């Protein structure tokens, strides 16, 4: 189990080192720009006798100790690397853990479980010979802190990339069944290139509009850039199941928004009373 560093001063020092959220500490004329958000997320605050926050924890992980584990559900927390590079592993077909990357200090990870309600897609561990420090952030802080420019941009880009990746994975699976000239072993990069180079004209454009639901929220795919035959092929091969998955993600995001909105309203009332 990781060991929590209880000092709030140490939490603040860690926040200062992380590019995406360091703006939380910005100040002008002796006042913090996000004073209430800083208080709630770092120290916690009482609202009518009920404690709200804190939403940050500074954790020390022993050498080789996992921070997140592939396949586990962890939709309430995301993380930031504070000290030491963390190792990223994925499961091979033979169930062996293969190291695929390192996360350097300042890197944010684990947010897709919070944003899309999906299991962890990799295992992240402390290095084998060093103690690593990680800043953990709980889900309610998302609504409070996504106003920070860099943090909001990082979340948006991550969600878009995830949405586009899911669309391409679905298309790779179903398009070859309906488009013989497309090889069954085409990869995501090749399919993305072919979709991006496609153009839709006249009646095809109108028909393509009927399939707007094929893109999950946040994917931000340029629909005029998708070739009509590919859209029709995906639809004919079973977008009903895909739509069900999309609906589940939408409901999860709505639940997240309602949860965070409640905390944001409390913070707003406290600001008015201050």
List its traits:
four-stranded antiparallel sheet; 44% helix; 274 residues; 9 helices; Jelly Rolls; globular; 13 strands; alpha+beta; five-stranded antiparallel sheet
Structure in words:
The protein has 274 residues and is an alpha+beta fold. It has two domains: 139 residues, Sandwich (Jelly Rolls), CATH 2.60.120.10; 81 residues, no CATH class. Helix content is 44%, strand content 20%. The strands form four sheets. The protein has a five-stranded antiparallel β-sheet. It has a four-stranded antiparallel β-sheet with strand order 7-12-9-10, with no helix packed on it. A hairpin with a 2-residue loop joins strand 4 and strand 5. Helix 5 packs across helix 8. It is globular, with a radius of gyration of 22 Å. The two termini are 39 Å apart. About 16% of the residues have low confidence.
What's the number of helices? 9
Q: What would you give as the CATH superfamily of the largest domain? A: Jelly Rolls
Helix content, binned percent: 40-55%
Biggest beta sheet summary: 5 strands, antiparallel
Structural domain tally: 2
CATH class of the largest domain: Mainly Beta
Q: What is the string of SSEs from the N terminus onward? A: EHEEHEEEEEEEEHEEHHHHHH
Give the class from helix and strand content and strand pairing. alpha+beta
CATH architecture of the largest domain: Sandwich
DSSP strand count: 13
> What is the terminal separation in angstroms?
39 Å
Give the integer mean of the pLDDT values.
74
Sheet with the most strands: spatial strand order: 1-6-13-8-11
């Amino acid at each position: 189990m990781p060991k929590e560093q209880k000092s709030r001063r140490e939490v603040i020092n860690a926040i200062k080192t992380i590019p995406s959220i360091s703006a939380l500490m910005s100040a002008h004329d002796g006042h913090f720009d996000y004073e209430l958000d800083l208080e709630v997320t770092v120290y916690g605050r009482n609202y009518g006798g009920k404690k709200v926050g804190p939403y940050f924890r500074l954790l020390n992980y022993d050498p080789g100790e996992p921070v997140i584990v592939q396949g586990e559900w962890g939709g309430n927390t995301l993380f930031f690397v504070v000290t030491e590079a963390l190792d990223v592993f994925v499961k091979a077909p033979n169930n062996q853990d293969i190291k695929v990357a390192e996360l350097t200090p300042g890197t944010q990870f684990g947010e897709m479980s919070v944003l899309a309600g999906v299991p962890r897609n990799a295992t992240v561990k402390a290095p084998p010979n060093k103690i690593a420090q990680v800043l953990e952030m709980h889900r309610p802080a998302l609504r409070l802190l996504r106003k920070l420019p860099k943090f909001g941009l990082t979340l948006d880009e991550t969600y878009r990339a995830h949405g586009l990746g899911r669309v391409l994975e679905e298309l790779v699976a179903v398009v070859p069944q309906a488009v013989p000239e497309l090889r069954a072993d085409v990869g995501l990069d090749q399919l993305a290139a072919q979709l991006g180079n496609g153009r839709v004209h006249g009646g095809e454009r109108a028909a393509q509009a009927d399939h707007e639901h094929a893109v999950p929220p946040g994917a931000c795919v340029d629909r005029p850039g998708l070739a009509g035959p590919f859209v029709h092929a995906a639809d004919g091969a079973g977008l009903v199941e895909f739509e069900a998955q999309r609906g589940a993600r939408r409901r999860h995001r709505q639940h997240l928004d309602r949860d965070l909105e409640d905390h944001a309203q409390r913070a707003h009332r406290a600001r008015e009373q201050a």
